[in-house]
UniProtKB/TrEMBL annotation, chains A, B:
Function statement: Catalyzes the first step in the biosynthesis of NAD from nicotinic acid, the ATP-dependent synthesis of beta-nicotinate D-ribonucleotide from nicotinate and 5-phospho-D-ribose 1-phosphate.
Domain Nicotinate phosphoribosyltransferase N-terminal: 9-133
GO MF terms, alphabetically ordered: glycosyltransferase activity; nicotinate phosphoribosyltransferase activity
GO BP annotation list: NAD+ biosynthetic process via the salvage pathway
Family: Belongs to the NAPRTase family.
Pfam family, one: NAPRTase
Annotated keywords: Glycosyltransferase, Ligase, Phosphoprotein, Pyridine nucleotide biosynthesis, Transferase
Metabolic or biological pathway: Cofactor biosynthesis; NAD(+) biosynthesis; nicotinate D-ribonucleotide from nicotinate: step 1/1
Protein name: Nicotinate phosphoribosyltransferase
Length: 443, 443
């Protein structure tokens, strides 16, 4: 349901007017290298987690202008007839490489490298940034929550606090970065993510009594379900839950109150009633700090909503899409970069490696080359892990990174590379990046 | 391109499992009143601005489970066969009323009232909240920026900093709340919003010189275009711009630096060069506070990105969807509400009025009734403006609120009702709501 539609107008107008001008003056054909990266880790994060790439690849496949879109561009005089004709046949035939989803990133990490003619590559700027900026912001927040939660399972429940499509992307990003399940059914269908859920207060209020509601839920979902016990009085709710379900009840959910205290009281009450295996799930406005505070409380699982889907204070990752090298009129390569002091960026094509010492990351090593061919191979940095994979070659997308299989692989990759983080990266407070970014000129 | 797809899985799993249980025990048929409201104005806002309703109405029309979705629900055993059969025929046949888009809101304002059987109304919870929470957060931030900008035009340019679909919703919400244009082409096509754009640094870097780039842009877009002058040195950029374009140049854009100082320097330089009508647009990480700071600077227009699409620190509006009244088994009406101390809500059906004193809002007056019929009419509060409109009757959507026409009407409505705000509501600092919410029991 989320595929096959044209994605071509998820685009800032200036991408097409720049194309229009470049087609007129001939520079549209110049071969270009764009890089997508962030200048800093927003929100004082110690690391970032890449997400969205697999989603973006499918969106690039669907980046074809349909008739209604072309008519709109013509009628609104956004571009001229020659540019409309170009867009009519548009499909991306260049190449894309970059960091795999789930990979960690640091300031300057070349998360995506997009190569092609200026015409083909410039128009992907907006959609590439939309996807990577949101999804990576959520994945980064999710990884911090996952670190705070330790072995306790985490469920994503934030759909209602994000735009309806972003909600699906958030569930996907959270799963890649260590969450175990989502409440979002579209994320389940589209991306193969396990879905879960309990019940809302409205279900209890619909019934003539809490007992009726609990009995109905157990009749439908079995005794291993999780009952929401805080609609009226929590102590009474727990008592009713065990009376109705018996001591095999799967779990109870707490969605209000001072959670460390309430969780301890509920645990004691459940144990007293003999329901020693009944789990406690908490869900009230949690973020990574609240989760850390609950580490010593008798909580078995967390449900996280608002903070997750809004990036826990950092709702966008601050990535940019910059031209770093291009061909000159004579075919030679030129490194290019904006010079403005507060937003300067580093020209030249990058290759990226993570140096490791006994398995622990020590540096984000980024080589910079003027030319197209001078890219170092992994062999030149034997103690470093090369960070870039090839996603698109000559317009052909490697489908291994797409769909549910891509998500599953990304989740595994993230779990593995997170092990490389130095211990100081696991703290939640604001700080500098956990490892430095080091540039090496290779020309 | 954004319509016609099924929206039925933009839904939390528990909506469908509650439905499953309620279908088994017979309560699914109970007539219910759900309300969508917020308990407080997140972020210390003095008022909120409703957005998303028109979008939501179309999404409700498309809330039909397609075959692949039904198969998913069956294969994953989310619900039983009887519930799948119910969902196969699902379409909302109830009614929806509430605040028009662009309307102001305060704590407790019943932004939407959804009536129907529990079965029909409960499943709309997630999508209704996704849409209203995001869109209203953006609209509220946009209104604050619009107040700070005064008569200077505001363009929305944040697509790259929000999920690709949320970007379109953000452009729409910003336009309703007072922005003048967007960079997002899909927002232009889908919602009839004026689009605009200048050029990116990549366009200058693509060319062999800044002069080549400016000449190309002027050849394509004419002399009234806006040139981006900060890729290298701003003073040189301005000089080149006027040399190439002449003194009729439409505008220059500044995207970096200490804007009040730089804008003053550029204005002086433009005036010296005789380009006294050339406008200055600024676009570097603006929010309502930065815009207010620039009030005395010679700036002609603002472009706002990140802060707009992330709600300027409040990326979600904190709205909830609560069952407030239902029929009992005997057909009588019962007001219901959760009792938990920190998240208590007020049961009973609400009607809402804004009391006015000489045209200035004084109270959000909300009447509360147990029953279905005891809703006060506007005539009972002659000095108050009734705030609710009817959007859906017996499943039939009033199309006046949808599409581009709905957006245009919402924008006009917002401009009108914003005039009712007391002066203290226009300050940007965190504070209590500008007017109190007053409940009146009418039973």
């Amino acid at each position: 349901m989320l595929t096959g539609m044209s994605t071509a107008l998820f685009t800032d107008r200036y991408e097409l007017t720049m194309l229009d001008a470049a087609l007129r003056d001939g520079t549209a054909a110049r071969h270009c290298v764009f890089e997508l990266f962030t200048r800093r880790l927003s929100g004082g994060r110690r690391f970032g987690v890449v997400a969205g790439t697999g989603r973006l690849l499918s969106l690039i496949r669907d980046f074809r202008f349909d008739e209604a879109e072309l008519r709109y561009l013509r009628d609104e005089k956004v571009v001229d007839a020659a540019t409309v004709a170009f867009l009519e046949d548009y499909r991306f035939t260049g190449s894309v490489s970059g960091y795999r989803e789930g990979e960690l990133y640091f300031p300057g990490s070349p998360l995506l490298t997009i190569e092609g003619s200026f015409a083909e590559a410039v128009v992907l700027e907006t959609i590439a940034l939309s996807v990577l900026n949101y999804d990576s912001a959520v994945a980064t927040a999710a990884a911090r929550m996952s670190i705070a939660a330790g072995d306790r399972p985490l469920a994503e429940m934030g759909s209602r606090r994000a735009g309806e499509h972003s909600a699906v992307a958030a569930a996907r990003a959270a799963y890649i970065a260590g969450f175990d399940a989502t409440s979002n059914l579209e994320a389940g269908q589209a991306w193969g993510i396990p879905t879960m859920g309990t019940a809302a207060h409205s279900f209890t209020l619909l019934h003539d009594s809490e007992e009726d509601a609990f009995r109905s839920q157990i009749d439908a979902l079995g005794v291993k379900t999780t009952l929401l016990v805080d609609t009226y009085d929590i102590r009474t709710g727990v008592e009713t839950a065990i009376r109705v379900a018996g001591t095999d009840l799967g779990g109870v959910r707490l969605d209000s109150g001072d959670l460390p205290i309430v969780a301890a009281e509920v645990r004691a009450q459940l144990d007293e009633l003999g329901a020693t295996n009944t789990k406690i799930t908490v869900t009230s406005d949690l973020d990574e700090y609240a989760i850390a505070t609950l580490a010593a409380a008798p909580v078995d699982a967390y449900g996280v909503g608002t903070a997750l889907v809004t990036g826990s204070g950092t709702p966008t990752a601050g990535m940019v899409y910059k031209l770093v090298a291009r061909q000159a009129g004579d075919g030679s390569w030129v490194s290019v970069a904006k010079a403005s002091t507060d937003k300067a960026s580093k020209g030249g094509r990058k290759a990226a490696f993570r140096t490791l010492d006994a398995g622990t990351a020590t540096q984000e090593l980024i080589t910079v080359s003027d030319g197209f061919e001078n890219v170092p191979s992994a062999g030149e940095f034997p103690d470093a892990r090369p960070l870039q994979a090839v996603f698109v070659t000559g317009g052909e997308i490697d489908t291994a990174y797409e769909g549910a299989a891509g998500v599953a692989a990304a989740r595994t990759h993230h779990a593995r590379v997170r092990e490389e983080l130095p211990v100081r990266a696991l703290a939640l407070s604001r700080a500098d990046p956990a490892i430095p970014t080091v540039y090496v000129d290779v020309d």
